[in-house]
Write a structure and sequence with these properties.
By secondary structure, the chain is an all-alpha fold. It has one domain. About 75% of the residues lie in helices and about 0% in strands. The protein has helices spanning about 1-20, 25-50, 55-70, 75-90, 100-110, 115-125, 130-150, 150-170, 180-200, 215-225. The protein is globular, with a radius of gyration of 18 Å.
């Protein structure tokens, strides 16, 4: 869990630094920064999605993930959680966007390849090197993101801790099915969510990305089942 804790602290520090300098940056610059981050997010999503080798596994994982996530209303839960934070830290009648910032940042920091592989590796072997590397990247990205989106990015650190910690703790339960191919399929489904998030950030779509998070956990299980079927 050391890597998860360090990553969480990195998001807190980065967000705080961004908020300190936020007032001194004109809106046109913060808007341009946000668009740049969104474009990079789209690129990361596309490049990571190409790691998948079995389209059937991706489709089934996303379908099962969507069904599960929609039944659990994960997106609604995150939105409500962000709304609670927004009520506590925004002025009456002010449209601060804290809830949106919280959800966007939480997903951006938690659905990437480094999050998945790093948390799994930390949970299985105790090697936190990848999470330490991710912490440096998140330190920078959280500072840039908080300049554009505000204080909601800071509160996403809590989701980072819970989500990555859950993956690290559950890694042992999936050890038997976490082959290299399985991890690639997990990365593929996660990268597809990053792509969707990037499109949302650009205002092109309004996909409830959080409702697809269970696809992570279905990917290795679906791959194992599909591998038992001859010719697939």
């Amino acid at each position: 869990m050391l890597g998860v804790i360090v990553n969480t602290i990195a998001v807190i520090i980065g967000s705080t630094v961004g908020l300190i300098f936020k007032k001194g940056i004109p809106e046109r610059f913060s808007s341009a920064i946000m668009t740049g981050i969104a474009l990079c997010t789209v690129y990361i999503g596309i490049s990571g999605a190409l790691k998948g080798e079995n389209t059937i596994v991706l489709i089934l994982s996303m379908v099962l993930g969507a069904i599960t996530g929609t039944l659990l209303d994960i997106d609604g839960f995150l939105s409500r959680l962000g709304g609670v934070v927004e009520k506590k830290f925004s002025r009456p009648g002010e449209q601060s966007g804290i809830a949106q910032a919280f959800v966007t940042a939480s997903l951006l920091f938690c659905v990437g390849a480094m999050t998945i592989v790093g948390s799994l590796t930390a949970g299985l072997t105790g090697d936190n090197e990848m999470l330490f590397t991710k912490s440096v990247l998140d330190l920078i990205s959280s500072s840039m993101l908080s300049v554009s989106l505000g204080i909601g990015v800071l509160f996403s650190a809590a989701f980072v801790f819970v989500f990555q910690g859950a993956i690290a703790l559950c890694a042992g339960l999936l050890e038997g099915v976490l082959t290299t191919d399985a991890i690639n399929e997990i990365i593929c489904s996660g990268s597809l969510l990053i792509l969707a998030l990037g499109l949302n950030m650009l205002g092109i779509t309004k996909i409830k990305v959080a409702n697809y998070l269970p696809a992570f956990f279905f990917a290795p299980l679906v791959l194992r089942l599909v591998s038992l079927i001859p010719g697939i």
